[in-house]
Specification:
The structure holds 2 protein chains of 2 kinds. Chain A has strands spanning 5-7, 10-13, 19-24, 31-38, 42-50, 53-56, 65-71, 74-79, 88-95, 104-105, 109-113. Chain A is mainly β. In chain B, strand 10 and strand 11 form a beta hairpin. The mean pLDDT of chain B is 91. Classes of the chains: A mainly beta, B mainly beta. Chain A binds chain B through residues 4, 31, 33, 42-43, 45, 48, 50, 55-56, 91, 93, 98-108, and chain B through 32, 36, 41-46, 49, 51, 90, 94, 99-106.
């Protein structure tokens, strides 16, 4: 298996632009997670899906952030409009077991908003 | 609420020396505990996990951790580190019955030749 695949690996965009991050989970995994990593706040869980349904989005910082999972093999995290403080590394992770006892992470998308 | 405290942000250690990375958690209910490693420009990779049973857990790359319920700790240890162990290590906790994993702030392990 290729593991969790995220694209793009790097994204540089101007403030105010829309940004879309993409994730393909490991085939057969039924839980998907979006995390944000910054120096100041560490790893924060933004949202997670179970069987394509958003279960907890309490970590989404504000309405500018939205996430979708239209099917079991694809998810997006969108920021519109983007701001410099959104600059971070965004990770997608997936797991097979409902209890999330082992999550597999993608390599992340490094987002820079200038 | 659950939280995870990693007491050291950076730990320098000489090659072949032992190392301990500290982790304490707070939770009033049973938890599952994890250590993940992140190499530069990579995602997180599971090192080991404690779900139940023996409090001493062995993981990959020669790492082990001990769950201590009375001290609410889950410290990570390796008896002899290698240059290749240079990475950032994250302790994480999952509260029983929930899917939300809370990560510590991370500890950067720097192995000095």
């Amino acid at each position: 298996d290729a593991g969790v695949i995220q694209s793009p690996r790097h994204e540089v965009t101007e403030m105010g632009q829309e940004v879309t991050l993409r994730c393909k989970p490991i085939s057969g995994h039924n839980s998907l997670f979006w995390y944000r990593q910054t120096m100041m706040r560490g790893l924060e869980l933004l949202i997670y899906f179970n069987n394509n349904v958003p279960i907890d989005d309490s970590g989404m910082p504000e309405d500018r952030f939205s996430a979708k999972m239209p099917n079991a093999s694809f998810s997006t995290l969108k920021i519109q409009p983007s701001e410099p403080r959104d600059s971070a590394v965004y990770f997608c992770a997936s797991s097979l077991k409902e209890m999330n006892t082992e999550a597999f992470f993608g390599q992340g998308t490094r987002l820079t908003v200038v | 609420a659950q939280s995870v405290t990693q007491l050291d942000s950076q730990v320098p250690v000489f090659e072949e020396a032992p190392v301990e990375l500290r982790c304490n958690y707070s939770s009033s209910v049973s938890v599952y505990l994890f250590w993940y490693v992140q190499y530069p420009n990579q995602g997180l990779q599971l090192l080991l996990k404690y779900l139940s049973g023996s409090t001493l857990v062995k993981g990959i790359n020669g790492f082990e951790a001990e769950f201590n319920k009375s001290q609410t700790s889950f410290h990570l240890r390796k008896p002899s580190v290698h240059i290749s162990d240079t990475a950032e290590y994250f302790c994480a906790v999952l509260k029983g019955g929930y899917q939300k994993v809370t990560f510590g702030i991370g500890t950067k392990l720097q192995v000095i030749p």
